[in-house]
Amino acid sequence: MKILMYHYVRESMPHLPFFRYLSFDNFKKQLDYFEKNFGLVSFGEFCRLKTEPKFINMLKNKILLTFDDGLKEHFTLVYPELLKRGALGIFFMPSLVLEQEKALCVH
Fold this sequence. Notes:
Strand content: 15-25%
Distance between the termini: 30 Å
Number of domains: 1
Strand order of the largest sheet: 1-4-5
Number of strands: 5
C-alpha cells in the first residue's frame, strides 16, 4: 500500500499566484489516475487490516490518502469527492487549534 499525504486542496485561486496548493480540479484528475492505475483503499479494506493483517498484501498496489491539518476544504471539497468514489481518506486534526483557539503557525 502506498500512502499519500495532502495539505491544501482548494478551488483555483488565481489572485494568490504564490500560495502553494493543489487545485480541486487537479485533485480530481489525480484521483482518476490513481483509480485507473492503482486503486484507492476503501474504508472496508482499511478496517479489514485490523482483523486480517496479511490482507495488506492484497492492497500492495492501492493508495491510501491522508490529509493534514483539518482544513475547511477537506470537509467541503475533498470528503464529498471521496464519498462519491467510495474511497477512504484519513484526516489528521490538530487539537492544539481547539485548545489555544487560534490557527496553527503554519497557516
